[in-house]
């Protein structure tokens, strides 16, 4: 049989290993949660940037959608198909 000193040492090592295991697992979980939160934040940030770009594209001023005084956006209420086609014909003739 083992002496009492050896048994105390064994159980002390076992207890220290269990405590270290819990501490290490908690550290790993905290890192994983932090990384997941950061990934989610980056994803939301990307979605916000995409939404802002789409909003800018949809609500751009009419001046940026004109070429040479001709409105090229067919969704615009002031769009003139005849003027647009004449402008395109003039561009291809150049």
Structure description:
The protein is mainly alpha-helical and 94 residues long. The protein folds into two domains: 1-59; 61-94, no CATH class. The chain is built from two helices and two strands; from the N terminus they run αββα. The chain has a two-stranded antiparallel ribbon with strand order 1-2. A hairpin with a 2-residue loop joins strand 1 and strand 2. The longest helix has 55 residues, at 4-58. The chain starts with a helix and ends with a helix.
Shape: rod-shaped
**Rg, please?**
35 Å
Low-confidence stretches: none
The total tally of domains equals 2
Distance between the termini: 104 Å
Order of helices and strands: HEEH
The oligomeric state is single chain
Work out the helix count: 2
Instruction: Determine the mean pLDDT.
Output: 88
What's the arrangement of strands in the largest beta sheet?
1-2
Structural class: mainly alpha
Beta fraction: under 5%
Query: How many strands appear in the DSSP assignment?
Result: 2
Query: Quick one: biggest sheet?
Result: 2 strands, antiparallel
Percentage of residues assigned to helices:
over 70%
